[in-house]
């Protein structure tokens, strides 16, 4: 989560006080934060060498650790295509609903205009027939 906020924080620091990035105290603290952040991932091969009961990926070598961190064991993710299809279906449904509301509003406007004419009933039947044919 901190990785997502890092670019925004970097831009903020660069806009407010760019010299803060060159201070020795900042560099030391940043190095410690990076070390703590990567220590979680470096624990994986240490644990794998102890032959645990559940050893997913078996990250006992550097290529195996890379594969575990890249989540290669799960293969290609196809869920994004399904999400895109769902989004497109929702958009299509929204478009249809908007079109139905437009037709309903147009029908209401025609009925209101026809109700004010002397031949309102005949004109209303013709207007409904035209709407059904559209």
Report what the structure shows.
This protein is mostly helical and 134 residues long. The chain folds into 2 domains: 2-74, no CATH class; 79-133. Helix content is 75%, strand content 0%. The chain is built from 5 helices and no strands. Helix 4 packs antiparallel against helix 5. The radius of gyration is 32 Å and the shape is elongated. The mean pLDDT is 78.
Taken from the alpha-carbon principal axes, the silhouette is: elongated
Q: What structural category do the secondary elements indicate? A: mainly alpha
Gyration radius (Cα, Å) is 32 Å
DSSP strand tally: 0
Low-confidence regions: none
What percent strand?
A: under 5%
| Fraction of residues in helix | over 70%
Question: Top keywords for this entry?
Answer:
5 helices, elongated, mainly alpha, 2 domains
């Amino acid at each position: 989560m901190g990785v997502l906020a890092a670019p925004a924080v970097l831009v903020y620091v660069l806009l407010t006080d760019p010299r803060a990035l060159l201070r020795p105290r900042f560099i030391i603290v940043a190095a410690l934060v990076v070390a703590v952040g990567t220590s979680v991932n470096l624990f994986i091969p240490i644990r794998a060498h102890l032959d645990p009961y559940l050893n997913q990926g078996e990250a006992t070598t550097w290529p195996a650790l890379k594969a575990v961190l890249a989540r290669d064991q799960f293969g290609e993710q196809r869920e994004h295509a399904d999400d895109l299809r769902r989004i497109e279906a929702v958009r299509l449904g929204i478009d249809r609903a908007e079109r139905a509301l437009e037709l309903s509003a147009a029908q209401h406007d025609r009925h209101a205009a026809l109700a004010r004419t002397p031949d309102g009933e005949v004109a209303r039947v013709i207007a409904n027939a035209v709407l059904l044919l559209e």
